[in-house]
Design goal:
seven-stranded parallel sheet, Rossmann fold, globular, 2 domains, single chain, 8 helices, alpha/beta
């Protein structure tokens, strides 16, 4: 009987500690949201650029990202990335050389070596989902270059939020048609064919290959809105 009471007390103590830890974790998550909103709310207009951290700096995709970001920056758009290496570093570098701000939303991930040096504003996040909200929330356009699971996760989130009207409609631009060809065919031949998405959902996406086409797509979109 005494042993049962002891076990009950021990279990209760562990439950209280776990609750305290979870409560503290919630406060830390809230603090990340507050800091992110405060730092980014006045940085407009901005374009969020997504892509893999695994490409070497001399990879053609990185050169493409740098050109795109530099043109956007010189056109008055702040550039926001995940702050890592590869395409993110290239995009921050291009923006850093331009006339507008280069912003990195950094996070520690197992396969990334850390943030890049081309950031006028650097924010650091513990939680992946908080950073994703910050990348999506205030953007005037999304530019998605080749990437892996993380990039696909971000693209899927953007498409879902736009499809369900949980975020405002802005250009969603995929860069490098050859890279995205298989995925887009699957969207059309499998998802659309089975009525799990509509043709209007597919129309949310614009595919380009040249750096100039990114800025042209964004400019044309907002020019049409002003009419």
């Amino acid at each position: 009987m005494e042993q049962k009471k002891l076990n009950s007390v021990t279990t209760h103590h562990k439950d209280v500690l776990n609750l305290e830890q979870e409560s503290w974790r919630i406060f830390k998550i809230m603090a990340e949201f507050v800091e992110g909103f405060e730092q980014l709310s006045n940085i407009t207009p901005s374009v969020s650029i997504f892509g893999s951290a695994r490409f070497a700096p001399d990879h053609p995709y990185c050169d493409l990202a740098e050109q795109i970001a530099n043109q956007l920056s010189n056109a008055g758009f702040s550039v926001v990335t995940g702050g890592g290496l590869g395409i993110m570093e290239a995009a921050n570098k291009g923006a850093f050389k331009g006339n507008s701000q280069s912003i990195g939303l950094n996070i520690t991930l197992p396969n990334e070596q850390g943030g890049n040096q081309y950031q006028d504003i650097s924010l650091h996040f513990r939680h992946f989902f908080v950073r994703k909200v910050m990348l999506i929330k205030n953007a005037s356009a999304y530019v998605v270059l080749p990437g892996g699971f993380g990039t696909l996760d971000e693209l899927s989130e953007i498409l879902t939020l736009t499809q369900t009207d949980k975020t405002r409609l802005v250009p969603i631009i995929l860069v490098q048609s050859a890279f995205w060809h298989g995925l887009l065919n699957w969207f059309k031949n499998t998802l659309l064919a089975n009525n799990t998405i509509s043709q209007e959902d597919l129309n949310l996406i614009t595919v380009v290959d040249k750096p100039t086409e990114v800025l042209e797509t964004i400019s044309d979109y907002y020019r049409e809105l002003e009419k």
